[in-house]
Structures are given as C-alpha cells and as structure tokens.
Design a protein that fits this description.
674 residues; alpha+beta; five-stranded mixed β-sheet; 22 helices; 20 strands; multifunctional enzyme; Beta-lactam/transpept-like
Length: 674
C-alpha cells in the first residue's frame, strides 16, 4: 500500500507541471489544521532558567521552543539526516520521492522514505498516519500549503515543538530535559543523534525502556551524518541515558500560586534564583528528617535592598503526606511568638521613651488582669533595655507595648507590608507576645524594614511586579539600634558571631518555632512546626529554627554582607551619660506603685502664690538624694544632697518647678511669684 501511495503522489506532482493553476488552487484551498499549539506553562527564575513546568491538557509535556534555544549543531545534523533539501523545496522533495519510488519499484517494497520535515509537521499537526495513500496525499497537500503560509523557521519550530520522543514527551526541548536534564542549547553529537533517531520510532526506541534499540538507532545516525571517524567513534562510545529525569520542580508552591493568579499566561518570570532555591529545598528536606513524620518547614529569602524574593520553600517536600507537604507554609497564618519584639523596642526608641542603655525593671506586673510571665517563670529585676530584648523577656515587651499603645504597634506593623489578623478584631497587649496571626512572608517583610533603616521594603516575586511605595516604620537611628542589639544575640553552636541580626520565637504551646535574621543584603525567615497546628513538644525557635537560619545563609552565598554602620545622629553612650529621662524607663504603673517613695515638693506646693524678691527656698520630702532641681525646663541645681535648696534670680510671674531624685522619679509644682 505504501508503494501505491508513492505512485499516486508522484503522478500527481508530475502532472502538476502541466496543470499549475489547478494545483495552485488545490493547495491554496487547503483547510489547514490549527497552527497555534498548546504548550506547557513555564515558571522561570530571574535568569530565565526553568524552575517548573506543567503538562498540557492531555497530560503531555510539550515545552515551547524557538530556533535560538537549540544547538546549531543539532539542527545541522537534523536537516542533513531527515531533509537535506529542506531550505530548497516547497514542502515536497520531488527528487527524494523519485528516488524512493525507483527503489520501491526495484525492490518491491519501501526501502527509503521521502517524507520531508514539512510533511512530518503536517502529519504531527493532524496526528495522521503514513500508511494509507489518502493520508500521504493529505500530508503532501498540507505540507505545500504550510510552505506558502509559514516561513522555513516557523515550520522547523513546529517540528521541534511537536516531534514525539516516547511516552508523553513531545518536542526537542522537552526531550533534552527528560533524557539529559538540561536545555537543548548545547548538545554533544551523540545527544543530537539520539534526538534525531527517536521521533522515527519513539516508543520502540525509548532509551529508558529499549536501550539496545535506542543505541543502534543513534549510532546509525552518527555513522550517516558525521564524516570525521574520530568524532563518530567518540559519539558512539558516549553513554546512553537509560532513565527519564523528572522535570524541574523548584518553588512548586509559589509556582502554583503564580499560575493560579494568571491562568492564561504561558511564561512566568520570577525574581527567584534557581540554584539558591534548589539548595534551600534540599536543606528543608534535611532539616525535618530527624524530627518525625509530621514536622514541616518553610523558608523565605528576600533581598532587602530591592525587595526581590530570592527563594521560597513552602514545605519540606511537595506531596500529600503526613507532613502535609502540599500546604504552603510561607502563607499560613501562625502565631509569631517573640519575633515581633524588635518592632516594639524599635518604636519605643523612635518615640524617645527608651534607649538600648535605659534601665528597665523586669518584675511581676498586672496589666488590668493580664499578667504575663517570662518563658522560664523568673524575673531579672533591673537590667538594660538591650539585655531585655536579647533575653526576649515578656514583661518588659508588654510594658513597652502598653506605653506605645497596641493600636500604634499594629499600625506600624501594617506599614511594613504585613497583614495581621487580630483575634476579636481589636488589638490588646497580647499582640506583644504573638497574639496575632501573621505569615512567614509578613515577618520577612517586617525584618526587611528593620534592615533597611526603618523604611519598609515591599516584597515582589515576579520580575514584572512594581513594588508598593515604602513607608517609615521608625527612624534610621532606632532601626540601627535594633540591628546592633540583635546581632549581639548568641548564635547557635558553630555559627559566626556578629554577622547576622536575628531573633527567634516560640508560639504558645510550642506550635511554631521561628528564626528570622538579616545581614547587609538578605533577610531570611525560617518557620518550623506542624501545619495542623498541633504542638511540637520541646520545640523552641532557638534550638530548632535558628541553626537552620544560619545554614540557609551559607547556602544563599559564601560570605555574609556586613551590617550597616550607625547613622551620624545615633546616640551611642552608656546609661549614665543618657539624658535623665532616658536613664530609667518609667511607665504610669511604676509611678503609682512607687508613689510612697517618690520625691514630693513640700514647698512651695502646687498652685502656691509666693511673695519673693527673686529668691525662693524650695524643699523636697521623700525620694532618694542627690536631687536635680529644674526650673521652667532648665536644670538650676544638680547633685543636691540637702532637701532644702535656694533658687535664685527668679523673676516675678509663673514658674514650673520640678525635682528628680537619684532613681529618676520626679515631682512637679506650678507656682506664681510676686
């Protein structure tokens, strides 16, 4: 039947010379198949490297490809083997067909084919057959019509996209990923030869199933196309791939998210780095292995200099298992534990109500029925604010939150780009200790703002995204102080000191373990826990997540970027050299509790009208010497040991007197002299 088909086609083409007009009309009237191919949706990294691909509707892998993506040596070999007059014929190679016809007549069977690449494209477009003469005639007609409507480059690209390579693999780019694990831009002669041989009989020559047949077919191509014996010998000795490689599956959770948000887009270019993503996915799988079958992990890396996401690991593995690996934990609402404390202290520094060297009291406190305790149930008494943050004390964090106000705290949190979910809708003091729902992406954005001098850094992960405008979280001096404090926290064993400003956190009931930190360029967040929210007994952020944080930094880059230098206006002094109001932190509750011991101006009392010639004798009771007397905001007498002092050169009129004792407590009196 094939021989008769050749006779019919050849006769038609030869008669076409006498009936050119009729043949032209026949070709022009061809109803072409759909030329717009469905190709796999692709997710690529910032450098264009494939991170993830999706099958087309019928479950086939079919990656889009253009000539400039393919090794020129492969293209030369393909044309030399399959269709050496490809650039000269008009869809049908009459010389090849006459040769095949002559051989068929002489041998009594088909010896060699005459199908051009264009004819193969015609068959692939319609998924047609070659055995029936009607099918061969249809291929000829479609091929000649294709040549009139498409360029040679377009026809070749259709072949490169549709050529079958066994199973559900279509197209040369798909094949190189499946069998060689790479793009087709650089191929060895042996690899090129295998890619040429497979489409001729894709199922019978699959190297992952029939390696002997595949090698024989490859070697025949090598022998026919490669003239240099030494090159041919090396090519035939090259090891044949015997397995199909899985397609890249980097950042699968983020990829699914992007594709779902933009369902008609075929190519998504992200800001991620494929090599970093690969290393961190391996780290995540390694990190959970010693901790049972239910623990999961999430890691987010962001460049805080430009807001670009560098890596996003949603779980330890992308599958439905006991770890619930299909759940993207970078976006899950969780309790952040103590990781919000740096923002609390930063706002306090920004408002001028505290300084890293301010003394603050860590003592039992009751905030209207809310009595927080430190994680170990112990209290440290007086200590510096710096130490209170480094030790992650709960009472001091809540005390500062009461002073700055929970609403203001949540407002600044939102400015960072986070979207906090407040239980009950109204923030209370519990937000200081993690009583708010936040995602890992939220927390990474918050710390990016701290790293960026107190200016928020909106996160982007698509190269085409335009980031939102930055917002001020705190002044640059306050942000630097926070980084300086956090970089002084003792790192995990074998981790470098003073390289990363980081904070750990553990949510109530040990449900979430956090570690978030930054150097001079990157901020990395690590979350560990169970996606279903059940406790992980004994899990602490410092023990579980912090070591992974430092390992993540080592996998992002070889060296740490130095933290920023202090801004020029930064106040770097000891406690004794601070302005008096900053030497000791006092909240309203402290004043009330210490009222019996606080200094009190005995004379003149508040509201008094005193006859004076410019000299006033003032007296203080209670309090601890030495005393500082302040008149109208300016110190007049300092380090006074006596409780009665002489204030001189006071003009007639209204005055405000204040006395501050050695503990920083004070008393005030408004008087009139006449």
């Amino acid at each position: 039947m094939k021989r008769y088909a050749l006779f019919i086609v050849a006769a038609l083409l030869l008669s076409g010379a006498a009936m050119r007009d009729q043949v032209d009309g026949w070709i022009d009237a061809t109803d072409l198949p759909v030329l717009t191919l469905e190709t796999s949706v692709e997710v690529r990294d910032r450098d264009g490297r494939l991170m993830r691909a999706y099958t087309v509707a019928d479950g086939r892998w079919r990656l889009a490809v253009s000539l400039d993506q393919v090794d020129p040596g492969y293209l030369d070999m393909l044309i030399a083997y399959e269709d050496k007059r490809f650039y000269r014929h008009s869809g049908v190679d009459i010389l090849a067909m006459l040769r095949a016809l002559r051989q068929a007549v002489w041998e009594g069977e088909i010896v060699s084919g005459a199908s051009t690449l264009t004819m193969q494209v015609a068959r692939l477009l319609e998924d047609g057959t070659t055995g029936q003469w009607q099918g061969k005639l249809r291929q000829v007609r479609v091929a000649m019509a294709l040549e009139r409507r498409l360029s040679k480059q377009q026809i070749l690209e259709l072949y490169l996209t549709l050529a079958p390579y066994g199973g559900n693999v279509e197209g040369v780019r798909t094949a190189t990923f499946s069998y060689f694990g790479k793009e087709p831009s650089r191929l060895t002669p042996a690899q090129s030869a295998l890619l040429i041989a497979l489409p001729q009989s894709p199922e019978a020559r699959r190297p992952d199933r029939y390696s002997v047949r595949a090698k024989a077919a490859r070697d025949r191509v090598i022998a026919r196309v490669i003239d240099d014996p030494s090159v041919a010998s090396v090519a035939q000795a090259e090891i044949l791939p015997t397995t199909r490689r899985p397609f890249p599956s980097l950042a699968p959770h983020l990829s699914d998210r992007v594709v779902a948000d933009h369902p008609v887009t075929l190519r998504h270019d992200l800001t991620l780095q494929a090599d970093v993503q690969m290393r961190l996915q391996a780290l995540a799988a390694q990190a959970v292995r010693p901790h049972g079958e239910r623990l999961s992990i999430a890691i987010v890396v962001m460049d805080h200099q430009n807001g670009q996401m560098v890596a996003s690991v949603g779980s330890a593995g992308y599958q439905s298992d006991r770890r619930q690996g299909h759940v993207d934990m970078t976006r899950a609402l969780r309790s952040p534990g103590s990781t919000l404390k740096p923002l609390i202290y930063g706002i306090a520094f920004d408002q001028g109500i505290a300084h890293p060297e301010t003394i603050i009291a860590d003592i039992p406190r009751d905030f209207g029925g809310y009595a927080p305790q430190n994680f170990d149930g112990e209290y440290r008494g007086d200590l510096r604010v710096r130490e209170a943050l480094q030790q992650s004390l709960n009472t001091t964090a809540v005390l500062l939150t009461e002073t700055i106000g929970p609403n203001r705290f949540v407002g600044q949190l939102r400015k960072s780009g986070a979207n906090p979910v407040i239980p009950g809708g109204k923030p209370g003091l519990a937000v200081a200790l993690g009583g708010v729902g936040l995602t890992l992406e939220d927390m990474v954005q918050l710390y990016a703002g701290l790293a960026n001098g107190g200016l928020s850094v909106p996160m982007v992960f698509k190269k085409t995204d335009v980031p939102d405008a930055s917002k001020r979280l705190m002044n640059a001096e306050a942000a630097w102080h926070i980084g300086d404090i956090l970089s002084g926290i003792t790192p995990p064993p074998n981790a470098p000191r003073d390289k990363v400003a980081f904070k750990t956190g553990t949510s109530y009931g040990h449900r979430d373990a956090w570690a978030i930190g930054y150097d001079g360029q990157h901020v990395i967040g690590v979350w560990m826990g169970r996606p279903d929210g059940t406790p992980v007994p004994g899990a602490f952020g410092g023990d579980l997540a912090a070591p992974i944080l430092f390992q993540a930094f080592s996998r992002v880059k070889p060296d740490f970027a130095p933290l920023s230098a202090p801004p020029p206006a930064t106040l770097i002094v000891g406690t004794a050299d601070l302005p008096q109001p900053l030497q000791r932190f006092r909240a309203l509750g402290d004043w009330a509790a210490a009222a019996v011991d606080a200094p009190d101006i005995a004379f003149p009392p508040n509201g008094a009208v005193v006859e004076s010639d410019g000299v006033l004798f003032a007296k203080v009771r209670n309090g601890v010497a030495p005393f500082t007397w302040i008149v109208n905001g300016a110190p007049m007498i300092t380090a006074a040991r006596d409780r009665t002092v002489e204030l001189s050169n006071l003009p007639k009129g209204f005055h405000t007197l204040a006395v501050v004792d050695a503990k920083g407590m004070s008393s005030r009196s408004n008087i009139q002299l006449r």
